[in-house]
Amino acid sequence: MSNPTQPVGPGLPETQTMVTDQVVPPAQEGQRKGKQKGGKPASLWTDAWYDLRRRPMFILSLIIIAVLLVMSFWPSLFTSIDPFNARTCDLSTARQLPSAGHMFGKDNLGCDVYARTIYGARNSIVIGVFTTLITALLGGLLGIISGYFSGAIDVISSRVTEIFFAIPPILGALLIAATFRGRANSIMLVILALALLGWPMTFRIMRAAVITAKSQDFVVAAKALGAGAGRIMFRHLLPNSLAPVIVVSTINLGGFIAAEAALSFLGVGVQSPDISWGLMIADARNRFLDAPLPLVFPAVFLSITVLAFIMMGDAVRDALDPKLR
Amino acid sequence: MSSSERVLEVRDLVKHFPLTQGIVFKRQIGAIKAVDGVSFDLRKGETLGIVGESGCGKSTLAKVLMALERPTSGSVTINGKDIAKARGSELKRMRRNIQMVMQDPYTSLNPRMTVGDIIGEPFEIHTEVAPKGDRRKKVQELLEVVGLNPDHINRYPHQFSGGQRQRIGIARGLALQPEIIVCDEPVSALDVSIQAQVINLLERLQNEFDLAYIFIAHDLSVVRHISDRVGVMYLGKFVELGKDNDIYDKPAHPYTQALLSAVPVPDPEGREQRERIILQGDPPSPANPPTGCRFRTRCWKAQEICAEQEPLLQIRPGTGHESACHFAETHDVVHAG
Q: What stretches pass through the bilayer (chain A) (predicted)?
């Protein structure tokens, strides 16, 4: 445009003097600012990553998750017993307490609980992680669109989520899983059914957070600069409304693993001889009073998994808030 | 300082917000007449102060000027083009010429963006302004221009004080080298000591870059300090418009006189004697403004003609600037007594 003057440029002597409103430098960041001074540009995501690498909670959760993933894909690294081989089970030793060869003891059918727990990790973790990812992505994306545009888009998508909320979850999942039975493998069916019934929750949370964020002045300022809808949604609204979605999603992860057990119990989820933690918990429930251990061990693994993801979610949430760094 | 080149022409600007009833089938039962026929010009390098009490339409006017709201009617012409009618890429291009400094420095900066990202955002949106490699350097230069340390480019807004944040907001407004900056109460959220620094910064930048300001505020002394001309708004209309000295020393409209008589005087000598005009009642609802003159319901000069005939904003006999009152007469309130 035709602006003859250049706002920026060298040779503005009066600007050399620093005006001193009191500077508020947080004590803990002195070192790294020195390193970054005028050097690499920082952004929310690079700063968050820099911060995460220094959080013990994040490192710990990452290690746990890594171990669980290795366990899921190479279970034979952890145990020499193949639980799919019927000969490793011995009914006469059913509900045996832990011993040297079977450190978690044996279950109702005389199978090794440790080996089954290790082999059950894959199904449980795949179901938990993928269902969470799908609900977070689908619910989050629709939530941000619905919250930002409001109007007709919002009315329609909100009514659609209300329809999903009205479906009793187990009944709905049963219906979906039973309808598509045989057309996909049971794990994918469980993920599909749980994700379909789970996304409205993330949608609601994201939408509410976006509506709160979009009324703030910095969104108006971005519009005044000429920012488009995409930039406002993903540069301004998303980072400011991600925290509750992360928290709820990581908590839901455990819920999905448990819900899979309910579906297995009703005959549509993972079925024997396939193994999952949910299935093991469901199987051991009947004899819990005389033999608690076959239930306790997979339950502990489930809890550790959920805890690791919640810890990771918390660390990520904190790292994405510059005030908490 | 002001050359004759007009950068902004506002003509008969009207913004009505519909009042609706019903949930599914909305029907309009009225309208909030937030801005109701405002016209003015702004010249290059000039500052137009706009004062008025809460709810008189100052901020709505700013939003319409910034094309954040579409006017109900009227035009906002910037260098010959009507921004109110511009769409898409044309509107985006026009935005480079009119930018904004917002009131609250605590909510106007994204808490999850670094200062570098905040001030660099204009360059990312208008990629043609600065090539990618230059942007970071430009941001640092802007930080220097507004009196902040360029090394703080990687910090977040919460690490700055209110005054410093407002400087960041000003740097963001300057980035695209606009000719016009709309300042919507830029200092009302700041401490008095910081207000002066920010005002002085705005004045310095105006001289350096030949900026034209629309300066909206409810603090009359701040407006007088920075403005070349002042417009007084009441219920969506200008009641008086003129040079700052004319408005402050020779106010012609009763509302302006009442406003000025309420300005606190720091000098205890004689302030007890000065005239105080205390208005009765509250401003009427902008959904249902009075007929004729909008101020007549609270005016001590009101007569029948005020209810029947709307006074136009024009130069009245015996006064040197435009006012919208049938009985306009200059009366120095500030120095009276």
A: 57-77, 125-151, 163-180, 186-206, 241-270, 295-316
Residue A288 CA neighbour count, 13 Å, CB half:
11
Give which of B238, B210, B250, B176 is closest to B41, Cα–Cα: B238
Mean pLDDT of A292-309: 90
> Token pair for residue A198?
């789970």
Of B92, B156, B205, the CB nearest to A226: B92
> Are the Cβ atoms of B95 and A21 closer than 8 angstroms?
no
| Residue range B1-21+28-97+178-227, CATH number | 3.40.50.300
Check CB contact under 8 Å for B208 and A47.
no
Q: Would you tell me how many other CB atoms lie within 10 Å of the CB of residue B301? A: 15
pLDDT in the model for residue A80? 83
CATH topology of domain A45-80+114-324: MetI-like fold (1.10.3720)
Over 90: is that where the pLDDT of B275 sits? no
In 3D, which of A284, A280, A286, A249 has the Cα closest to residue A264? A280
Q: Residue B90: count other Cβ atoms within 10 Å of its Cβ.
A: 12
For A202-230, b/e burial (b = at least 16 CB within 10 A) is: bbbbbbebbbebbebbbbbbbbbbbbeee
Residues of A in contact with B79 (CB under 8 A): 2
pLDDT in tens, A234-252: 999 999 999 999 989 988 8
Cα separations in angstroms, B322 against B40, B187, B242, B318: 11, 28, 6, 11
CA–CA gap between residue A205 and residue B111 (Å, rounded): 20
What's the rounded Cα separation, in Å, for the pair B50 and B47?
10
Tokens matching residue A292? 């608690």
Range(s) for CATH 3.40.50.300 in chain B? Answer: 1-21+28-97+178-227
CA dihedral A13, A17, A18, A20 (to 10 degrees): -140
Question: Do A18 and B160 make contact, defined as CB atoms within 8 angstroms?
Answer: no
Q: Do A8 and B145 touch (CB under 8 A)?
A: yes
Interface of A with B in 266-325 (CB under 8 A): 320-323
Cβ proximity of B189 and B103 under 8 Å:
yes
Contact residues on chain B for A224, CB-CB shorter than 8 A = 66, 68, 95, 99-100
Residue A200 to residue B259: CA distance in whole angstroms? 54
A34 in contact with B at a CB cutoff of 8 Å?
A: no
Please report residues of B whose CB lies closer than 8 A to that of A20: none
Q: What pLDDT, in 10s, does the model give residues A22-71? A: 444 444 444 444 344 445 678 888 888 998 999 999 999 999 999 999 99
Contact B151 A37 (CB under 8 A): yes
Mean pLDDT, chain B, integer: 89
B145 neighbors B174 (Cβ within 8 angstroms): yes
Strand order in the sheet with B27-43: B27-43, B6-21, B73-78, B81-82
- Rounded to whole angstroms, the Cα distance separating A187 from A177 reads 10
d(CA B92, CA A223): 10
Predicted complex: ipTM over 0.85? yes
The interface residues of chain A toward chain B in range 60-89, judged by CB-CB distance below 8 A, are none
Residue B238 pLDDT > 90: yes
pLDDT confidence of residue B95: 94
Among B211, B217, B209, B243, CA closest to B229: B243
How close, in Å, is residue A190 to chain B by CA atoms? 37
| Block residue for tokens 């005016």 | B299
